[in-house]
TrEMBL record:
This is Aminotransferase class I/classII large domain-containing protein. GO terms for molecular function: pyridoxal phosphate binding; transferase activity. The keyword Protein biosynthesis does not apply. Transmembrane segments: none annotated. Its cofactor is pyridoxal 5'-phosphate. InterPro entries: Aminotransferase_I/II_large (IPR004839), AON_synthase_class-II (IPR050087), PyrdxlP-dep_Trfase (IPR015424), PyrdxlP-dep_Trfase_major (IPR015421). Signal peptide: none annotated. PANTHER family: 2-AMINO-3-KETOBUTYRATE COENZYME A LIGASE, MITOCHONDRIAL, CLASS II AMINOTRANSFERASE/8-AMINO-7-OXONONANOATE SYNTHASE. It comes from Euplotes harpa. The lineage of its organism: Eukaryota, Sar, Alveolata, Ciliophora, Intramacronucleata.
Amino acid sequence: LASDKRIITAAEETMKTHGYGLSSAPLMCGFQNIHKKLEKELAKFHGTEDAILFPSGYHTNVGVFQACFTDQDAIFSDQENHASIIDGIRLCRSKKYVFGHLDLEHLEEQLKSAQEYRFRCIVTEGIFSMEADILDLPKYIALAKKYNAMIYLDECHSAGVIGKTGRGCIEYWGCDPNDCHFISSTLGKAIGGGGGGYTTGR
């Protein structure tokens, strides 16, 4: 997609109408109508309610954890999760549990022992970039429902890659997007952008 002539032409035309840079932070005037339109399109793409843009995939993971979780919560992270996820969890000060790579039995043991926390969130990737392992998402959803936990699914390496229409791990397995409370991804890989990330969900 990064070399698709239609995308290149659209980018050129948009720079003519909106300029090359944003001139300010989003809080001031750096968030424009085209950004809101992109958020709506990304939510539509994933079958979710809405989306929020970030400067990069890294900022997405760091920002969401800081905004949504505190020291009253417990987060369960696959040991092969990306560094941005690890940094985000560290910054939010939640109780961190690290389970063996794709080890559902280990994860269940940890979930059983953490029922006193306000929120429990299972954090994993749809495709793990170093191993190319595809997450068996239905099993994680079942476990999350059993222990009243949320799912944070990083689709950075699966959005635009797997699924009948490229919608990632959720579409690949035929799951309901609403069963994943947070979906994060990047615009800088298969989607073909020059950077940027986003989170979406219900």
